[in-house]
Design a protein that fits this description.
The chain is mainly alpha-helical and 163 residues long. It is 71% helix and 6% strand. The protein contains five helices and two strands, in the order ββααααα. The protein has a two-stranded antiparallel ribbon. Strand 1 and strand 2 form a beta hairpin. The protein is elongated and about 65 Å long. The chain starts with a strand and ends with a helix.
């Protein structure tokens, strides 16, 4: 076993991981921690407003019954959207991140870290005002680069099989 890589093998497959793949793993863990942190404000708002799970978005009747002001509802909805949007994002991004890391761990980790920062900026903007969520929209650039790297991984696999 070389110092710069880790080899996993079985009767089905063999994978050599660059040591830099550890950074990809830590970026993935960072996204998980971020999701956990996004749960805290929504839990606080649920307690404050009386909107109980599993309700994601209260109906007009619930808003009236709970005597919630339009400002409180707006705040709740923005905080809920940060949490929900991040969950929706992770479902698609996690597998792509982990696959792209198999192709180029260093660049994937960097792209993932920049995507992470963009998601934080987006969330902070959204917490402030719905129209401010776009200030972190640049996270899509490294996100697309991650997709590109995953695509290159798939292409490389196909080329190695047909060779």
């Amino acid at each position: 076993q070389e110092e710069s890589s880790y080899r996993m093998s079985s009767s089905f497959a063999s994978v050599n991981l660059e040591k830099e793949y550890g950074y990809v793993v830590f970026v993935a863990i960072g996204f998980w921690i971020l999701q956990f942190l996004f749960m805290i404000p929504i839990a606080i708002m649920r307690n404050k407003t009386g909107i109980k799970a599993p309700t994601l978005y209260p109906t007009d009747k619930q808003i009236t019954n709970l005597k919630l002001s339009p400002e409180t509802v707006d705040t709740y909805l923005r905080i809920q959207r940060v949490h929900q949007n991040h969950m929706e994002f992770l479902v698609m991004y996690f597998p792509i991140l982990l696959l792209a890391g198999l192709y180029d761990a260093k660049h994937t980790a960097i792209a993932g870290a920049v995507t992470f920062l963009g998601r934080v900026v987006t969330a902070l903007g959204y917490y402030y005002n719905a129209s401010a969520r776009g200030i972190g929209g640049w996270f899509h650039i490294p996100e697309l680069y991650t997709v590109y790297l995953a695509g290159m991984f798939g292409y490389t696999l196909i080329q190695s099989i047909s060779a």
